[in-house]
Write a structure and sequence with these properties.
The chain is α/β, with parallel strands linked by helices. It has one domain. 44% of the residues lie in helices and 25% in strands. The strands form two sheets. Strands 1, 2, 3, 4, 5, 8 and 9 form a seven-stranded mixed sheet that branches. Strands 6-7 form a two-stranded antiparallel ribbon. Strand 6 and strand 7 form a beta hairpin. Helix 2 crosses helix 3. The protein is elongated, with a radius of gyration of 19 Å.
């Protein structure tokens, strides 16, 4: 009897997680049908008015982090700031696309007819200290535009971070945790678009 109760609990937990997964991407404007039949797509990643952790402004987060690291070891904060910008420029977007193309059948091409612009609105770096952890998470918007006519928004998606109840393994460095969050968001967006253009 106890075993049955355990299986029932696990079943409803997984059911809840699947439901929340489906609700983490919402179409807030427009129509995705223009992507039907397209075999390639372009991406752009922006960080306009992004909050980070408990900081409403990214600049405040960067300043605090530089001070903390430089206090521990001079120069490490300045080095971190450079790496942070490099990760925004290359790593985070690459991880998003890696997840996206796992669930969406197309290829990346910067000359594709359509571009998806992912703007990060809020970024939670998370932490991992011993057995205590907080998952990294990313909230953002995906705007679909014509690559040659970016002033017109064809569709807008809102992307919400995964619930904190999801255990995604250990990652002691922020880069890996955040990269994982972008990868998961990429998967969610790819799956949502694939489903909604049919």
């Amino acid at each position: 009897m106890k075993t049955i109760k355990i299986f029932v609990t696990i079943f409803f937990t997984l059911l809840g997680l699947n439901s929340s997964f489906a609700q983490e991407v919402d179409l807030t404007k427009g129509d995705l049908s223009v992507l039907k039949g397209e075999t390639s797509i372009n991406f752009e990643f922006t960080y306009e008015k992004m909050s980070v952790g408990d900081f409403n402004k990214e600049a405040d987060y960067i300043k605090k982090r530089i001070e903390e690291l430089n206090t521990k070891e001079p120069g490490t904060g300045d080095k971190w700031a450079v790496e942070w910008e490099e990760q925004k420029k290359n790593y985070f977007g690459d991880k998003f696309m890696l997840g996206f193309f796992k669930t969406y059948v197309a290829k990346y091409d910067n000359s594709a007819k359509y571009t998806l612009i992912f703007n990060t609105r809020a970024l939670e770096p998370g932490y991992q200290v011993g057995v205590s952890k907080r998952n990294a998470g990313v909230d953002g918007t995906v705007t679909l535009v014509e690559t040659a006519k970016r002033d017109k928004k064809i569709a807008v998606l809102f992307v919400e971070r995964a619930p904190e109840t999801k255990w995604r393994g250990a990652a002691f460095d922020a880069k890996s945790r955040i990269g994982d969050a972008y990868y998961m968001n990429g998967q969610k967006v790819g799956k949502f678009i694939e489903k909604n253009i049919k």
